[in-house]
Amino acid sequence: MSSRFAVRGTDREIEIGTQFAPKFDEHGLIACIVADANDGEVLMLAHMNEEALVRTIETGDAWFWSRSRQQLWRKGESSGNTLAIQEMRVDCDQDAILLKVQISGNGVACHTGVRSCFYRKLTVKQTADKSLSLGFVEGPKR
Amino acid sequence: MSSRFAVRGTDREIEIGTQFAPKFDEHGLIACIVADANDGEVLMLAHMNEEALVRTIETGDAWFWSRSRQQLWRKGESSGNTLAIQEMRVDCDQDAILLKVQISGNGVACHTGVRSCFYRKLTVKQTADKSLSLGFVEGPKR
């Protein structure tokens, strides 16, 4: 399959050019940050292959490549929590995508039942022997 | 080097347990989203190896692994735009990190001189032959 996106040029062309030339890694994937279009909260990080990216652009709903299930996946297909793309951005070297979305259904992005996958805040405590003890202050809140 | 983080347990332990057990990929890296602690804007996506993650936790400044330069990198070391960690979060399966930061210096996170690496919004136009024409509405704004 030949790429349906622009050929990647020089660093300068990639950074300030007007062509979308996404860089897929050696597994054919590009990282994709999903944030809520309303309040900007980061909801999840997922990966797209070329087909998922094309379907996302064509349909306006977020499609990903599931690395664990090794299959194309329309987010929310079974849960009803589909992600309608409000805005799509790419970073300087075009190897990461940012989607600003509106979540359908009950507004939950994480498969654990909470809004954002990033539901745990990390805390660091210095223990008596000066080693670091890591843990979480917050568990998932439903 | 033995890991300085918890051993990864069952899916349930990883998702709702109280132990930080980050998953590094086959290159020893974990993806790290950086967002502004004040307004939540997504600034960049970078990668950490175990050493970068340990230094970030120990120092409170963001350290990454540069895949292009293949070296450990304290963000802002040369530019002065270091990232002071206000909050650190991990996602459900603990294979992605979210840093909420305060940028020092002139408040610029991207090496191109703009605040966020995600300075370009993607637009899609349907061309006469029904193929998709992709481009950007916004270039970098300094």
Please state the CA-atom Rg of chain A, rounded to the nearest Å.
18 Å
Oligomer: homodimer
* Major beta-sheet overview of chain A: 4 strands, mixed
Low-pLDDT stretches of chain A are none
H/I helix tally of chain A: 2
How does the helix and strand content of chain A classify structurally?
A: mainly beta
Strand content of chain A: 35-45%
DSSP strand count of chain A: 8
The greatest inter-chain interface is formed by:
A-B, 43 and 43 residues
The strand order across the widest sheet of chain A is: 2-1-6-5
How does this structure look, described?
- The structure is a homodimer of 142-residue chains.
- Chain A has 142 residues and is mostly beta strands.
- Chain A has helices at 11-16, 50-59, and strands spanning 30-36, 42-48, 63-66, 71-74, 83-90, 96-103, 120-126, 132-136.
- The first copy, chain A, has a four-stranded mixed beta sheet. In chain A, strands 3-4 form a two-stranded antiparallel ribbon. A two-stranded antiparallel ribbon of chain A has the order 7-8.
- Chain A is globular, with a radius of gyration of 18 Å.
- Chain A starts with 10 loop residues before the first helix and ends in a 6-residue tail after the last strand.
- The A-B interface holds A 4-6, 15-16, 18-20, 31, 33, 35, 39-42, 44-45, 57-58, 87-92, 96, 98, 110-112, 117-122, 124, 132, 134-136, 139-140 and B 4-6, 15-16, 18-20, 31, 33, 35, 39-42, 44-45, 57-58, 87-92, 96, 98, 110-112, 117-122, 124, 132, 134-136, 139-140.
In summary, what is this structure?
By secondary structure, chain A is mainly β.
